[in-house]
């Protein structure tokens, strides 16, 4: 689980305001107690004797409906930190598109990721982050690894999948991500070690999808924690170029372990 400081710094309601000009439009809504109960104890018997907070409920539901409508009627929903990606199968076309409150309840109650957060995290108020739904090409998403405020590693989030254009466009991808990071993110995020997920879409400007903690549990896709961790103890020049690591050849279906072993000797500087 994340440390309390991580929970706070990486919660979308703490970073959204500062980065809203470079991320997807999002509406943040605090989760009131009565709705929280609906999201965590879906199969628990309702206590009929409890007074039904009808008014409170109706007000909250209105707020949610208005939010969904103002985001073009389709939203991507997250809690402070995570999306219910493990509930994808319950959505039409695996899109995790939500267009009403029932969709949100369904995704959240069937997602182990979300339920784990809701049952284990104490002392941080939970929120719903309704984000404008956008079709994102899997090859356009990059996890960028920032160490001591320097962008050191770039990995496709769709890994290990072979994309032929990465070889030719690699230098441009590195340039665009480095410039975007240096101009828009560096020193603005309150941590010096973290990951930031960035979408490169042409001809639009790049945008941030999410920030996340950098630790042994972070999914680093093409990189391993073993090679990243030592870099956190070393200072490095500001102008060092990041390593963009991707599959260079199409060698059929590969496991993550197979793919990583290919890079055993391509050390990071
Ligand atoms: N607004 C959106 N519209 C459509 N799809 C989205 C949207 N935001 C994210 N996705 C898709 O869902 C995936 C998971 O989203 P996201 O990265 O926000 O989840 P996460 O829980 O923070 O993941 P991780 O735990 O790996 O950091 C993304 O890789 C992207 O493909
Ligand atoms: Mg994330």
TrEMBL record:
Tell me which InterPro entries the record gives: CDC123
Q: Which superkingdom? A: Eukaryota
Q: Which residues form a coiled coil?
A: none
Tell me the Pfam families matching this sequence.
Answer: D123 (PF07065)
Question: May I have one GO cellular component term?
Answer: cytoplasm
Q: Where are the transmembrane segments?
A: none
- Family under the similarity heading: Belongs to the CDC123 family.
Record protein name field = Cell division cycle protein 123 homolog
Originating species:
Exocentrus adspersus
